[in-house]
Specification:
mainly alpha, single chain, elongated, 179 residues
């Protein structure tokens, strides 16, 4: 490993800004919309005794969109569950190369997932893929999911390249004042 292990790869810093902005603005807008919808639905159901027809459909759509916009940021900041047993029993060199291998496999899996989500979006109308009550087509939401998974695949690829180049990935956690 070179002396780069203490610094951050410039590509990772740019990537951090991108995934943070997507999670903050797009994901945040979905969470705010979801919160407003839930509060409104609860008020209508229990105060006015008149439930909103289709509220569950919008809850489903907003929740899926929230996850899609947040998954790359979660992966980049270490918000996902990780078991690091290999790091305990092996040295940092072996761990680095297994991390590279795992990120490569993950990026390939994300590529396949994105491809299938795009294809599902293209055929959603033909197969009647809609929400249960209002029958809103799921076509754009397959594409939103594809965008989120593609962004996470990009995260994995850039992290893999940074590891190959000898950079540390640890500069991304914690709160940011960039925005």
């Amino acid at each position: 490993m070179s002396d780069k292990s203490n610094g951050a790869d410039p590509a990772l810093e740019l990537l951090d800004r991108l995934v943070r902005a997507v999670a903050l603005f797009a994901g945040g807008a979905m969470v705010v919309g979801l919160a407003i919808l839930i509060v409104t639905a609860v008020v209508f159901r229990y105060v006015f005794n008149s439930p909103i027809f289709g509220a569950d459909d919008f809850n489903q759509i907003l929740l899926v969109s929230t996850v899609a916009f947040a998954v790359a940021h979660s992966g980049r900041t270490g918000g996902q569950v990780v078991v690091e047993i290999l790091g305990i029993v092996s040295g940092p060199t072996l761990t680095r190369w297994t991390d590279i291998f795992v990120k490569l496999i993950g990026a390939m899996m994300m590529g396949i997932l994105v491809w299938m989500l795009i294809e599902s979006g293209l055929t959603a109308a033909a197969y009647g893929e809609t929400t249960s009550s209002l029958e809103i087509t799921l076509k754009p939401f397959f594409w939103i999911l594809a965008f989120g998974m593609a962004l996470y695949g990009l995260v994995l690829i850039i992290e893999m390249v940074a590891l190959i180049r000898g950079y540390s990935l640890s500069g991304s956690t914690g709160p940011s004042n960039d925005l």
